[in-house]
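User: For a benchmark we're assembling, each entry needs the component sequences followed by a predicted structure for the full assembly. Here are entry 17's components. Please fill in the structure.
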Amino acid sequence: MQLLEPRANPSKLMRWAAPPLAIMLTLLAAAAIFVLLGKPPLQAFHVFFIEPLQDANGWSELLLKASPLILIAQGLALGFRARIYNIGAEGQFLMGAICASGVAIYTDGMTSAWILPAMVVAGAIGGGLWGALPAWLKTHYNAEETLTTLMLTYVASYLLSWLVGGPWRDPGGTNFPQSILFSEPAMFAPLFEGLRVNSSVFITVIAVPLFWLFVSKSFMAYQLAVGGEAPAAARYAGFSARRTVWVSLIVSGVTAGIAGASEAAGPVGQLTLSLSPGYGFAAIIVAWVGRLHPIGIVLSGLLLALIYIGGDAAQVSMQLPSAISWLFQGMLLFFLLGADAFVDFRLKRRRAKPRLKDHVNDEEGRA
Amino acid sequence: MIEDLIPILATTLAAATPLIFAGLGELVTEKSGVINLGVEGMMLVGAIAGFAAALQWGVAGGILAGALAGALVALPFCFLTLSLGANQPATGLALTISGIGLSAFIGQFYVSQSLPGLQPYAIPLLASIPLIGPVFFAQSAVVYLSYVAFVLVAWMLARTRWGLILRAVGESPEAAHAIGYSVIGIRYAATCFGGAMAGIAGAYLSTVYTPLWVQNMTAGRGWIAVALVVFATWKPSRLMLGAYLFGGMTILQLHAQGLGVELPSQLLAAVPYVATILVLVLISRDRKVLRLNLPASLGKPYISGG
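Assistant: Structure for entry 17:
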């Protein structure tokens, strides 16, 4: 059953209308789920999307969650444009958190202004190396990066579980698998008294215009995009496919690593098993919904952060499981990919009457 | 010494079974030219559906429900990628993310419940063959089903008209369309078959292997199954070999401390994932082997002109 036919030219309108359309469809589907669960949908939407933003704390949480999502998604989008599918940002995030925590744990008790910057650098290196590994495997051994980045995510999470359960476990604490609480020099300072949002959001604030400049102005970003859109043309022009792989994976690894470092040195304040709320995976959706565009990603990052917070709120006040926010994220991506089809294709129009010259093919058509 | 190995080998087979089902399913899907990265999600949905059904109707009902649920959740993937021509890797990823959410969501109602599991059944005569008997023929019925699935898939692909058509669609959809086969219809069927097999794999985990429902209980097995298809260079017999290799690795990891390996358990648990990367590297480095066996239209959307 074929529903579509190619458009003569890709639709500009659909390209920008697809995300809002996907959001609306997700809301409709969500409403249907709420009704099935016997919860009034309007009240549920209120809990999900309005209540979290009614006080300063809600806005603080929104920024706190949107910041890592946006940062990771900026890095991922660079690779996705070049058709390098790093789906293991979660692992790079964890490695960033691990390396940053290592710095915090071994400098515990010292007071230097350099500890926090060192942690961020360590996080960037950890995440960057965890991205470089699949790049090496791809360029030297042709190993598919989708699978290797994902496998390395599991490796990172077991490494984390070993560290917090063994060598880095808080010696003074209970038997919980977690490290010591970081001291003040190893933490991002809160921006406002009593709220959790901290100065790490400035990293994202600086990164967004940098990415925008890089994507819209640099020759290298152009090479990356050509490599993704038209590999043959890129080869002909002499653009290095290997470099595309290395740059895509290392940049996305570095951004995820920094986000991991900020999470450990921010709201969590220690290394724990449950350090990541799945930002590495959610950022994939953020990148896609944001049209792989630096500014679009900011908007979609805020939206996904709201879904996260709404999920938590719905769990508390409506006894809905927080897993529901994963379901919404998946549906959002589904609907977006569906709406995206209409950028290059349009619905096939039914022909009113078969014309004579089409008679030969027509048996199939009428069946 | 050999006698000591028997229980290890027997549990290896049990651990390999979900990989066999999910891997064979994905193999058939990919042979038709579709790459579905949603295996992990379909397995999870199969696992929770199987668990819920098994509480009512026993393991057989659970496996059946798992298959049905897996095929059902493959449908939106089919619609997007086949009818609308959406990007296959991205849509597969959306399927996995949705599957994680959906299964966790339904699973919350079943967290503290447990199932009796399934007793192994020794096949008369066969089970008394030394070594091979107790390893291969004193298993649970679902493990036997995995042998049947292998034989059927291998035979269908290599020896039947259906297999030929499926391969034709994967190698050259234009040619298959020109002869009059419905490329899209066949790809729908192959992808739903892959979903059903992933669902069985999940249901086996939750009703026989564990037998409990735990959130995210597949722990990456769906992704390993996708990697195994590459490792197998799209050949069912090599897929079996790979699945047993990985089953063995999972089990050895449990016995490692007894065997005197001094590594901490968390690091041993990472071994199957590292091994997956290694086999991918070993097989992918030879581009020629990969190119010769890769279904030529894999991952490319097909929109017919007529």
